[in-house]
Amino acid sequence: MVDVETVLIVEDEEKLATILAKYLSASGFESHVVMDGADVMTAFEKYKPSMVLLDIMLPNVDGITLCKQIRAQSQVPIIMTTAKVEEIDRLIGLEVGADDYVCKPYSPREVVARVKAIMRRVNYIAEQSQEALHGLEVDEQTFMAKFNNESISLTHVEFLLLKAMYVHPGRIFSRDKLMDHIYSDDRIVSDRTVDSHIKKLRKKLQSIAPEANFIHSIYGAGYKFEPI
């Protein structure tokens, strides 16, 4: 029996939530609807969804806060939905850890297409977790990166930086978000520290893959990993 992927729809407009649930069901997804922000984390723990569609404007607890709460315990894909134009810059910068965003009003077909695209990427990475991702292999046991039979050793911080981006290709990570991945003690670290580690990591990757550019700088937002 094939496991059905579950989408948690967090949307306080009942009619819209019902439509999304029907479209997702027609595409082979199971869905659960939550309309109150205060109930989201309980539902998240109960249903353990494969994906979260998360509206920003919610009663009691807003979507930005919920996204941060989910990210504190899970890397499950999150698509934010918003009718607030002023929130777009924050979402694009991924300051809250979202994978994608959709502006209201939107087409349910577009939302389903976004869900499918992200889930294909996530499932592919899961299948390849112990194998090379487009030629680059990352070994968590030895802190080694390998490309075309060439290997390099990484420091602990360099490995954590690479791993954070490697398992989510295409996602833009702000410097603050990367700091959260490499330092778990809430220390104060400047953006330049992250930039310095990224520079050293790039140099090492280029030593084994001179024609590749795995780590991309996104002006005003941060960094992302793109497999070749």
TrEMBL record:
Keywords: DNA-binding, Phosphoprotein, Transcription, Transcription regulation, Two-component regulatory system. The keyword Transcription regulation applies. It holds the Pfam family Trans_reg_C. InterPro entries: CheY-like_superfamily, OmpR/PhoB-type_DNA-bd, Sig_transdc_resp-reg_C-effctor, Sig_transdc_resp-reg_receiver, WalR-like, WH-like_DNA-bd_sf. Residues 6-119 form the Response regulatory domain. The keyword Metal-binding does not apply. SMART domains: REC, Trans_reg_C. GO terms for biological process: regulation of DNA-templated transcription. Residues 128-227 form the OmpR/PhoB-type domain. The modification 4-aspartylphosphate is found at residue 55. One of its GO terms (cellular component) is protein-DNA complex. One of its GO terms (molecular function) is phosphorelay response regulator activity. CDD domains: trans_reg_C. Residues 128-227 bind DNA. PANTHER family: DNA-BINDING DUAL TRANSCRIPTIONAL REGULATOR OMPR, REGULATOR OF RPOS. This is Winged-helix transcriptional response regulator. It comes from Pseudoalteromonas phenolica.
